[in-house]
Design goal:
7-stranded mixed beta sheet; alpha/beta; binds magnesium ion; 9 strands; Rossmann fold; binds guanosine-5'-triphosphate; about 525 residues; two-stranded antiparallel ribbon; 3 domains
Length: about 525
């Protein structure tokens, strides 16, 4: 099997088919459905055809009704195996004329039942000539059969004559096959009825039309199936094709290249723009609003002040603070908890801002790209709204739960001091009450020691209460500073988590699409035949 081309720059056919298959897989759901379906079809056909080897060359006689396809087939066979006639159309099912091996498997695959077996021929062994129904009669099934065979043949012989060579029906097919010049032969039949000048004029005109169809290297043979004049030219072409066994590969290469170029037309010329850290940061900033980072930061700050007051506040009043719900527990953000937070849902404006930010990154990354990429990338960048909200909630929640600072050590020291002062206050108070009760009962006075004229119980009560109150006020100032720091830290952690979510759910899908586009270009370039 000749599956490797001679030119060093060309990629072998199996590799090109594999590249096309990979490209088709990536193009599905991204590029035009028809081009994708065609690509898949070409891959399957190519693999099927290669499974049958290159020993046989399938040559299809194609053309308008009455052009002489059956007559030409008979001329090649050397006997009247195909029905020819003046009633149009004549041929209604494909006839295969086989030289050498019976090509059963190949013709079964081709679904051609009418078969004529020629004797062995050194020159034509391996040749299969297919006499095909016309493409321009009223019989639609003829056209469908002709298109089916034209698609699966290795070499296409387009038979026409002086009257029909310019028909639009013919050139509509040729234009589609413009990449197939190497596996196509034009036959201008019935030259027996033409003067030498007319023959020349027809050939020149046909060549011009072929170029207009995009077939620069089209081969035109002028002959007569009736008289046999010029038949040797076609026999040479067919004999050569059979000997070189290259038509199979060339045909499939042309198919793969056509499918690749159809897809390549949609991948565009420009690659996407790399996503910068600035773009990433801006996105995260805009998502932070929807993620409730400010609400969380505020709660951390309030929680810090509340916890500080609980630890260092004046023991006689600190219980009042405990009556209010804890800011973090209220949001389901306390340490050791998990699951969804109770943060309020993002407002309409916040959601809109987040959506606009996502769209902006996608648009910026694809600014220089042609459709469909901006649409594809925008779609990939936009996570399902619920999922994004859930992920952000989880990220922000975990950031606060896991990274809360431990209570500062001074809280417990001040706390102990506050307890001692409270104890002194209570001792002083109880002592004074005892003195009052004893005096009221007119019992002998209790001994009341004093320090520099100030009775000790009075001193304990006043100093304990005043000092405790004063320390509570000072501690509150310190806690306010600490609360700011804790809030800043929480904000940073939450913002980092939001960045991670933004990267995973928005940036990475965008980058994946841009990479897919570049991969597609590479694969299609390989499939197209150049590396
Ligand atoms: N003068 C002349 N007539 C030809 C030549 N080749 C074919 N014919 C005639 O053209 C008519 C049509 O020939 P066919 O071979 O049946 O044409 P076809 O392309 O197979 O037609 P369909 O089967 O209907 O698609 C017949 O009457 C042939 O005798 C030729 O080289 N010269
Ligand atoms: Mg016919």
């Amino acid at each position: 099997m000749i599956l490797r081309r001679t030119s060093e720059n060309d990629v072998a056919l199996p590799e090109r088919i594999a590249a096309l298959q990979s490209a088709v897989d990536r193009a599905a759901d991204r590029l035009d459905g028809d081009a994708v379906a065609f690509g898949q079809h070409v891959v399957e056909k190519a693999n099927d055809r290669l499974r049958h080897g290159t020993e046989h060359t399938l040559v299809a006689m194609l053309g308008a009704t009455g052009a002489g396809k059956s007559s030409l087939t008979n001329a090649l066979v050397g006997s009247e195996v195909a029905t020819t006639g003046v009633r149009r159309p004549t041929t209604s099912s494909t006839l295969a004329c086989v030289w050498g091996d019976d090509a059963t498997d190949l013709l079964d695959w081709l679904e051609v039942q009418n078969r004529h077996l020629n004797g062995p021929s050194e020159r034509f062994n391996g040749l299969v000539v297919l006499d095909v129904p016309d493409h321009d009669s009223v019989r639609v099934e003829h056209r469908l059969e002709m298109e089916r065979i034209a698609e699966q043949a290795d070499l296409m012989v387009w038979v026409t004559d002086a009257e029909k060579y310019a028909d639009a029906a013919l050139h509509n097919y040729l234009r589609v096959l413009k990449g197939h010049g190497a596996v196509m032969v034009m036959v201008l039949n019935k030259i027996d009825g033409l003067s030498v000048d007319d023959r020349r004029a027809c050939i020149a005109d046909l060549r011009r039309l072929l170029v207009a169809d995009g077939i620069e290297d089209g081969q035109v043979l002028a002959l007569s199936a009736s008289t046999g004049e010029g038949l040797d030219l076609l026999q040479d072409v067919l004999g050569d094709a059979v000997a070189r066994q290259e038509a199979v590969v060339q045909r499939l290469e042309a198919d793969v290249a056509t499918a690749a170029s159809d897809l390549l037309a949609q991948t565009g010329q420009t690659t996407g723009q790399d996503i910068t850290n600035k773009m990433r940061a801006r996105l995260a900033e805009d998502l932070a609003g929807a993620a409730g980072v400010d609400t969380v930061t505020d709660a951390v700050s309030r929680a810090h002040r509340r916890d500080a007051a609980a630890a260092t506040g004046w023991p006689f009043t600190r219980w009042v603070g405990r009556l209010r719900p804890h800011p973090l527990r209220k949001l389901h953000l306390a340490e050791g908890t998990g699951g969804r937070t109770s943060l309020p849902e993002a407002s309409g404006a916040q959601k809109a801002r987040a959506a606009a930010a996502i769209r902006n990154v996608a648009d910026e990354a694809t600014a220089s790209m042609a459709e469909p990429w901006p649409t594809i990338v925008r779609k990939a960048a936009m996570p399902p709204a619920d999922r994004l909200a859930d992920e952000l909630d989880q990220a922000v929640g975990d950031a606060v739960r896991d990274h809360r600072a431990r209570s500062p050590r001074w809280w417990s020291l001040v706390g102990v001091l506050q307890l001692l002062l409270a104890a002194a206050t209570i001792v002083g108070l109880v002592w004074l009450i005892a003195i009052f009760v004893v005096a009221w009962l007119q019992l002998p006075d209790l001994p009341t020691p004093d320090v520099r004229g100030v009775p000790i119980p009075t001193g304990l009560l006043i100093i304990g209460a005043l000092l405790g109150f004063l320390i509570a006020i000072i501690a509150r100032q310190f806690a306010a500073v600490g609360a700011k720091r804790a809030a800043r830290r929480a904000k940073k952690k939450a913002a980092d988590s939001v960045q991670t979510v933004a990267d995973e759910m928005v940036i990475r899908p965008i980058e994946a699409e841009l990479a897919t586009r570049d991969e597609l270009v590479n694969l299609l370039t390989t499939a197209g035949g150049t590396i």
